[in-house]
Amino acid sequence: MRTETLAKLTAMVSGTIAGLGMLLLTILVTAHVAARRFLESPFVFTEEYSGYLQVLIVFFGLAYTLRVGGHITLDLLVERLPMGLRRHVTIVTTVVGLLFIIVLAFSALLFVSDSFQKGTIAPTPRMTPLWIPQAVVLLGLVLLAVQLGLEAILQTRARERLDER
């Protein structure tokens, strides 16, 4: 599979999951409000699961946001550089970002593993095993790392093609 296609697929999967999380959050909150209003019996788990869904939306949205150029950048500084240097800076910052996310993902993996082994649960009526929402963070970081790696490859190839001309 081509790198460009894989980058698009990673972003599409990530963005779709984030979008579905948004839809589920909307349904959950709407159902909670309706149950409270008409049945006088709100769902006790809405606040907890809404928080988990917000985490899913943010972390699964990271790779998609990177692909569409939605993350904060320092364009003011980078755009003033000569084109050749700009390409180098972009590649270097992407690789540095990738390394940072790999460290975060590894830390998240240790955290999820620890919570799973200890059987840590949320102090809520549903007593949700905390490794589940923590794994969402880990998976979102892994998708972001994959996307950053693919973007670094694409940037390097684009630079090589320009150098050949």
Explain this structure to me?
Helix 1 runs antiparallel to helix 2 and helix 2 packs parallel to helix 5 (131-164). The chain has one domain. 23% of the residues are buried. The longest helix is centred in the N-terminal third of the chain and has 36 residues, at 3-38. The model has no long low-confidence stretch (mean pLDDT 92). It has five helices and no strands. With 165 residues, the chain is mostly helical. The chain starts with a helix and ends with a helix. Helices cover 80% and strands 0% of the residues. The chain has helices at residues 3-38, 46-67, 75-78, 83-118, 131-164.
Can you give me a brief rundown of this structure?
This protein has 165 residues and is mainly alpha-helical.
Range of helix content: over 70%
- Cα-atom radius of gyration: 20 Å
Order of helices and strands: HHHHH
Tell me what portion of residues adopts beta-strand conformation.
under 5%
Main β sheet profile: none
The number of distinct structural domains comes to 1
Strand elements, count: 0
Total of helices:
5
The low-confidence parts are none
Kindly report the average pLDDT value. 92
**Form type:** elongated
* Class from helix and strand fractions: mainly alpha
Quote the distance from N terminus to C terminus. Answer: 26 Å
